[in-house]
Write a structure and sequence with these properties.
mainly alpha, Arc Repressor Mutant, subunit A, 68% helix, rod-shaped
Length: 106
C-alpha cells in the first residue's frame, strides 16, 4: 500500500469515526431526555397515588423518603423532587417550626 492510499484510508476512517461520535452523542442526549421525562412522570404517579390514598398535606422530608423507599433506583434529589412536584401542581409551603410541607392538588 502506498503512502497516499494509507493517508486516504486514514482520512476516511477519521471522518467515519467523527460521524459515529456525533450519532452517539445525539442518542445519549435523547436517552437523557427520555430518562428525565420518565423519572418526572414516576414522581407524578407516586404523588397522585399517595395523595389519593392519604391526607392532603405531609412533611416534605417524609414524602421524599417514602418516594425513595418505593423507587430505589431513582437519582432524583430532594430539590428536584420538589420542583417536579410543583410542576404537577403540588405546592410546598412552610409550616410550624419552619418545616416544609407538600400540599395535594386543590
Amino acid at each position: 500500500m502506498k503512502l497516499s492510499e494509507k493517508n486516504n484510508l486514514y482520512l476516511s476512517q477519521k471522518k467515519e469515526i467523527e460521524s459515529l461520535k456525533k450519532l452517539v452523542s445525539e442518542l445519549e442526549k435523547k436517552l437523557n431526555i427520555r430518562n428525565e421525562y420518565d423519572e418526572n412522570f414516576s414522581v407524578h404517579l407516586f404523588l397522585q397515588n399517595f395523595f389519593f390514598k392519604n391526607q392532603k398535606k405531609i412533611e416534605a422530608k417524609e414524602l421524599y423518603l417514602k418516594y425513595k423507599m418505593q423507587n430505589k433506583k431513582s437519582f432524583l434529589g430532594k430539590r428536584n423532587f420538589y420542583k417536579v412536584a410543583a410542576i404537577y401542581g403540588y405546592h410546598s409551603k412552610r409550616g410550624n417550626e419552619n418545616k416544609l410541607f407538600v400540599h395535594g392538588k386543590e
